[in-house]
DNA sequence: AAAAAAGTCAACCGCGAAGGT
DNA sequence: TACCTTCGCGGTTGACTTTTT
């Protein structure tokens, strides 16, 4: 007996998510919390497999996500962590609040890798390219970490184009959201509603009402400021990343355009 | 202005781990 | 202990965008 596929491929929609689908998924999770992902699409009225829903939520819709390029400091941290941990993107992402493993993996492959190669460093071993083979056979984790630190300064000098964001390895400092992940805000919509009201967001906003109401799913129609884009969501995701002591840093970047 | 090439990143796939029965 | 289900991870793909020719 083989492994059951995560979904039967017939009747399951694939490809890019539409605004409508996002809306359904968000409203479902905010009102019901995260439950069994396999059941989510059915309960939320989506023609997607559970896996796809989980991925969409964790990589894109989660309210505590940062958007935009990694800052120089974040990049440096990624390099250090990669030297220590290798391609364990989820472990690396855990040290960068608001960043997903997918995002870091993409950034590594598209930006950091090239920078390191340009600088003559093997991105796989974190050793100089010329003797990377020989070096890798006798290198230690500590050595790699130390070496990666050596070129951090150069890296930051070469590319300071990224915006600066407050960086902490402690996710609790970064986000004022209730603990995300397997518990916290995405488990308890009340926490989310409370948090939103505490942060000066008026609950008069019609699109917020659905989160605390007992409306059936699907009744959010017309309550969200949906205009066919997810721009509003980006704004509220940025709100999610501002802790009480960093409001002035990240909170308003999206609105003044400096984040993108 | 158009075509080609390169870059970016959201989404998919398959596997392994964890947990339940 | 074996089997099954679910979830999460890392690698990869491919659609879309941007840059170059």
UniProtKB/TrEMBL annotation:
Residues 144-165 have a biased composition (Basic and acidic residues). GO terms for cellular component: nucleus. InterPro entries: Homeodomain-like_sf, Myb_dom, Myb_TF_plants, SANT/Myb. The keyword Lipid metabolism does not apply. Residues 128-143, 168-185 have a biased composition (Polar residues). GO terms for biological process: carboxylic acid biosynthetic process; regulation of DNA-templated transcription. Residues 127-189 are annotated as: Disordered. Residues 9-61, 62-116 form the HTH myb-type domain. It comes from the Eukaryota. Its main location: nucleus. It holds the Pfam family Myb_DNA-binding. Keywords: DNA-binding, Nucleus, Repeat, Transcription, Transcription regulation. Residues 9-61, 62-112 form the Myb-like domain. GO terms for molecular function: transcription cis-regulatory region binding. It is found in: Nucleus. This is Uncharacterized protein. It comes from Miscanthus lutarioriparius.
């Amino acid at each position: 007996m083989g492994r059951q596929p995560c979904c039967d491929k017939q009747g399951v929609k694939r490809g890019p998510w539409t605004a409508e689908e996002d809306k359904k998924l968000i409203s479902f999770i905010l009102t019901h919390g995260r439950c069994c992902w396999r059941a989510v699409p059915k309960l939320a009225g989506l023609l997607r497999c559970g896996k796809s829903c989980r991925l969409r939520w964790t990589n894109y819709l989660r309210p505590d996500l940062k958007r935009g390029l990694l800052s120089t400091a974040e990049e440096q941290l990624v390099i250090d962590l990669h030297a220590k941990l290798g391609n364990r993107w989820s472990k690396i992402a855990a040290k960068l609040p608001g960043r997903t493993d997918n995002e870091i993996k993409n950034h590594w492959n598209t930006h950091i890798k090239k920078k390191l190669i340009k600088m003559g460093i093997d991105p796989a071993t974190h050793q100089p390219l010329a003797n990377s083979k020989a070096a890798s056979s006798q290198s230690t984790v500590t050595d790699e970490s130390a070496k990666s630190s050596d070129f951090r300064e150069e890296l930051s000098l070469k590319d300071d184009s990224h915006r600066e964001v407050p960086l902490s390895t402690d996710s609790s400092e970064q986000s004022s959201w209730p603990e995300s992940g397997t518990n916290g805000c995405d488990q308890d919509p009340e926490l989310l509603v409370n948090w939103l009201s505490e942060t000066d967001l008026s609950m008069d906003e019609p699109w917020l009402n659905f989160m605390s109401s007992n409306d059936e799913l699907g009744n959010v129609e017309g309550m969200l400021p949906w205009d066919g884009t997810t721009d509003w969501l980006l704004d509220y995701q940025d709100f999610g990343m501002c802790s009480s002591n960093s409001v002035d840093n990240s909170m308003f970047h999206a609105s003044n355009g400096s984040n993108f």
